[in-house]
C-alpha cells in the first residue's frame, strides 16, 4: 500500500525570513557577525557550495573572478591522525578544519564520522561502536529517523588540552579506540585557517594528500524572466517571500523554467515566473569545495561593496553529512541596499 496521504512523524522543513538595510559602509576586515544577514554567514565553520547570481552587466563577476582558495584531500586512519606529524604540527598548535567522509566499520554495518573544529575532535557513531570505543559522550536523537530509529552518540574531545598527549590516560583511551574500533582509512578534507588554505609542500599531510584549488565557475543565462523585487517583503507579504525564494532557487540551478522563451507542458511543470518580470541577462558564479566561513564572508562583503545600486543574490549550501542537516541559506541584496534572508532548516 502506498503511503500517500499518511501522517508522518518527521519534522516539517522550516524557513526563517528576515529583511534589513545593509550598512552604508562595510569593512571586509571587520564585518558584523551578529546581525542579519552576516550572522548567517558565520553560522557554520565551513560550507560546500557558494553561488552568486547577478546581472551580466554588473562588475561583480569580475570581482568574484579574482577570488580563490584551496584545501587538501587526505587519506589517513584516525590512528595516523593522532600519532603522526599532522597532530603535532597542525592540531596541537595550529588552527585547522577537518571533515571526514563516513568510516564504514568492517565488523558491522554501522559507520562513524569525524570533524575537527578549533581543536575539538567530534566523533559521531552508533550505540554499539560507542560502547566498544569506551569514550564518554552523549546521545543525539535523530529527528529525521523513523519512529524506532537508533540514536547516534556524539563524543567531543579537545585535543589542544595539555592532557591530550601520549601517555596520558584520556589520550591513550582515544588512541585505543582508534586502533581497535575506528579502524580503516578515512578520507578527510583539510583546511589550514592560519595560512588561509594549504601548503602543497607540507609533508605532514601524508604521501596520499592531494591539493584541490577552488576557482569560480561562471555561466551566462540570457533573457531570464527576472522579477521586479518587492520593496517590502515580510509577514504581510508571504506570497512574495516564497515566490522570490522559489525563483532564486531555480536560477541557481539554471532551470529553463525561468527563460523567457521556455515552453513546457503543464503536466511536466506548472511553474510560472512572477507576473511582474522583465527579461535580463544573468551570470551565475559558483564556488564548490571545502569553503571556510571566512572565504564565504569575504566574498559576500566584496559583493556588497562592488554592487552599489545593483542587485545580487547568494545561495550557500553546507555538506549535510556527519550528522548535520546541512546549512542552507539565501540572501538577496536589492538595488536600494536592502538585504532579504532565508534561513532554511530541514
UniProtKB/TrEMBL annotation:
Domain of life: Eukaryota
GO CC field: multimeric ribonuclease P complex; ribonuclease MRP complex
Pfam families attached to this UniProt entry: Ribonuc_P_40
UniProt-recorded Gene Ontology molecular function terms: ribonuclease MRP activity; ribonuclease P activity
Record-linked InterPro entries: RNase_P_Rpp40 (IPR013893)
GO annotation terms (biological process): endonucleolytic cleavage in ITS1 to separate SSU-rRNA from 5.8S rRNA and LSU-rRNA from tricistronic rRNA transcript (SSU-rRNA, 5.8S rRNA, LSU-rRNA); tRNA 5'-leader removal
Record PANTHER family: RIBONUCLEASE P PROTEIN SUBUNIT P40
Name of the protein this chain belongs to: Uncharacterized protein
Amino acid at each position: 500500500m502506498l503511503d500517500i496521504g499518511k501522517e508522518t512523524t518527521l519534522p516539517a522543513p522550516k524557513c526563517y525570513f528576515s529583511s534589513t538595510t545593509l550598512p552604508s559602509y562595510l569593512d571586509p576586515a571587520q564585518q558584523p557577525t551578529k546581525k542579519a544577514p552576516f550572522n548567517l554567514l558565520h553560522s557554520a565553520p565551513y560550507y560546500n557550495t557558494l553561488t552568486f547570481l547577478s546581472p551580466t552587466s554588473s562588475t561583480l563577476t569580475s570581482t568574484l573572478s579574482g577570488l580563490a582558495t584551496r584545501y587538501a584531500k587526505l587519506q589517513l586512519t584516525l590512528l595516523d591522525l593522532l600519532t603522526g606529524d599532522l597532530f603535532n604540527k597542525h592540531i596541537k598548535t595550529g588552527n585547522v578544519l577537518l571533515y571526514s567522509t563516513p568510516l564504514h566499520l568492517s565488523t558491522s554495518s554501522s559507520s562513524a564520522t569525524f570533524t575537527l573544529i578549533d581543536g575539538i575532535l567530534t566523533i559521531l557513531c552508533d550505540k554499539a561502536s560507542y560502547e566498544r570505543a569506551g569514550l564518554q559522550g552523549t546521545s543525539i536523537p535523530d529527528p529525521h529517523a523513523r519512529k524506532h530509529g537508533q540514536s547516534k552518540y556524539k563524543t567531543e574531545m579537545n585535543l589542544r588540552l595539555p592532557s591530550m598527549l601520549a601517555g596520558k590516560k584520556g589520550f591513550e583511551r582515544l588512541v585505543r579506540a582508534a586502533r581497535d574500533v575506528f579502524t580503516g582509512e578515512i578520507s578527510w578534507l583539510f583546511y589550514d585557517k592560519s595560512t588561509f588554505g594549504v601548503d602543497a609542500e607540507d609533508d605532514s599531510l601524508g604521501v596520499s594528500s592531494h591539493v584541490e584549488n577552488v576557482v569560480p565557475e561562471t555561466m551566462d543565462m540570457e533573457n531570464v524572466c527576472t522579477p521586479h523585487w518587492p520593496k517590502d517583503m515580510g509577514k504581510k507579504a508571504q506570497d512574495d517571500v516564497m515566490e522570490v525564494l522559489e525563483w532564486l532557487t531555480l536560477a541557481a540551478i539554471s532551470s529553463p523554467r525561468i527563460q523567457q522563451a521556455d515552453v513546457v507542458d503543464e503536466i511536466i511543470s506548472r511553474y510560472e515566473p512572477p507576473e511582474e518580470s522583465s527579461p535580463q541577462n544573468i551570470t551565475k558564479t559558483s564556488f564548490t569545495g571545502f569553503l571556510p566561513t571566512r572565504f564565504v564572508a569575504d566574498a559576500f562583503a566584496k559583493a556588497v561593496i562592488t554592487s552599489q545600486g545593483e542587485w545580487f543574490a547568494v545561495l550557500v549550501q553546507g555538506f549535510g553529512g556527519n550528522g548535520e542537516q546541512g546549512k542552507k541559506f539565501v540572501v538577496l541584496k536589492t538595488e536600494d541596499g536592502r538585504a532579504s534572508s532565508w534561513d532554511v532548516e530541514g
